[in-house]
Amino acid sequence: LTGDKTTAEAADFLIGKPLSILLIVIIAVVVNRLARRAVKRTLRGLQAGGLQERLGNVRRATPDALLETGQISVRAEQRIEALSSVLRSMISATILLVALIMVLGELGVELGPLIAGAGILGVALGFGSQSLVRDFLSGIFILVEDQFGIGDIVNLDGTTSGVVEAVSLRTTRLR
Known about the structure:
By secondary structure, the protein is mainly α. The protein is built from 5 helices and 3 strands; from the N terminus they run H-H-H-H-H-E-E-E. The protein has helices spanning 5-54, 56-60, 74-106, 111-128, 130-145; strands at 153-155, 161-167, 172-174. Strands 1-2-3 form a 3-stranded antiparallel β-sheet, with no helix packed on it.
């Protein structure tokens, strides 16, 4: 408006960049909340609807006394809670990382070397934490496939057995 290049650059630096950063942060928070709600809702929907649709023909031929009540079991509730917690954390971390990179780009930081360094660090951490990743994936499969749950009696190797007290992604506690 004034015709002065220095004033225009100063106004852009003092008003334009903070507004862009604020907009990035607001969008990241909104997307994060929507994604977390969507994960929880999707997992509840899968638990309630997907399996029931596949069993529809069997249910039609089943006596009413043997049909499900429609209530979610405690075990299913625990599985849903554990899986949704993990997925929501992963989504939140991804959204936070993308927002942070975008903010750094707005501040004028060179992103190429930063992303290359993060890639190298990721590969090094991946090799170093293979057992952790393997345990994590095994825990997800245990929860998704409902291999065992709290209160089940399990036999590990013929000599070790017990009642499952807690199941998480990395550990299972027996008594």
